[in-house]
Amino acid sequence: MQATPKPFDLNSALELRGPSNSDLINERHITAEIDQQVQDDLQKNLDATQLYLSEIGFSPLLTADEEVYYARRAQKGCAKSRNRMIESNLRLVVKIARRYNNRGLALLDLIEEGNLGLIRAVEKFDPERGFRFSTYATWWIRQTVERAIMNQTRTIRLPIHVVKELNVYLRTSRELAQSLDHEPTADEIAAKLDRPVEDVSRMLKLNEKITSVDIPIGGESDKALLDVIADERRVCPDVRAQDDDIKVSIVRWLNDLNSKQREVLARRFGLLGYEPSTLEDVGKEIGLTRERVRQIQVEALRRLRDLIAGQGLNIEALFRD
């Protein structure tokens, strides 16, 4: 008996042959929309960065004399001078922040952290020591950027809402550390944010995770966390930066003295590879009496005083018995 053919079912036929052209078009359209949204988000970040860079590009750099002028006024509480120094060095922050790109923080975040260091540098800079502000500020900018990167590097991932809240505490902690010159306590952070100290303590404990210092930071960098962690034994950045410049300047000034004056000062005060020595010991080393060594030292210091008088430095602060 011949089987009765089933009526043609359009829907079944469409299911057997797979998605229709219209289905594929719709799917491609949705995918394209998602891709476009991602590109738009990336473009917004790029646009924001470019906008910031274009805005700070109009801030003129300060000459050495202008740095001294505005720094002195800033020390006296002039807000306009303080802002002028900050605005004129924003490009320095960008230059330093770019070196830390692809390490877990977006460029704008790195710049924001670096700006905090720049502000602190303006507040602490002493123009009377005769050194350029950029050398001094670099240490503070690098310190704040590196600390931010370290705080973002964790082996244990936290829920996004917890991370956001924790970042509020960490950012406040960094700001207080710069203004107080010490790591703030939970009580100080709580007072700043007007929040219960118990909440602050609990959140900060989440940041106290054991992290291997040998793990890669991520991104395109092959550096480990150890490479960017600040050495607690290191001299404070503001002291280190200016002292390094002082050493370079001293060597240059010593070269302007005669050979005998240069050797006496070098042996007396531990310069040019010598260990600090007494007048008597120096005399024995170079074959002169203690009194003659003292006379040469007085002459040499008088000569140096003339050389550095225009640098805003106190020679007695550089050479002490």
Report the CATH architecture of the domain at 255-318: Orthogonal Bundle
Instruction: Work out the helix count.
Output: 15
Largest sheet descriptor: 2 strands, antiparallel
Taking Cα atoms only, what radius of gyration do you get, to the nearest Å? 31 Å
Within CATH, the superfamily of the domain at 255-318 carries the name: Winged helix-like DNA-binding domain superfamily/Winged helix DNA-binding domain
Which percent band covers the strand fraction? Answer: under 5%
Which CATH top level class of the domain at 255-318 fits? Mainly Alpha
CA-CA gap between termini = 124 Å
Strand order of the largest sheet: 1-2
Number of strands: 2
Q: What general form does the structure show? A: elongated
Task: Explain how this protein is built.
InterPro entries: RNA_pol_sigma-70_dom, RNA_pol_sigma70, RNA_pol_sigma70_r1_2, RNA_pol_sigma70_r2, RNA_pol_sigma70_r3, RNA_pol_sigma70_r4, RNA_pol_sigma_r2, RNA_pol_sigma_r3/r4-like. One of its GO terms (cellular component) is cytoplasm. It comes from Ferrimonas lipolytica. With 321 residues, this protein is mainly alpha-helical. It has a domain at 255-318: Winged helix-like DNA-binding domain superfamily/Winged helix DNA-binding domain (Arc Repressor Mutant, subunit A, Orthogonal Bundle). Helices cover 66% and strands 2% of the residues. It is built from 15 helices and two strands. Strands 1-2 form a two-stranded antiparallel ribbon. A hairpin with a 2-residue loop joins β1 and β2. α7 packs antiparallel against α11 (237-254), α8 (160-180) crosses α9 and α12 (259-269) crosses α14 (290-308). The longest helix is centred in the first third of the chain and has 36 residues, at 21-56. It is elongated and about 75 Å long.
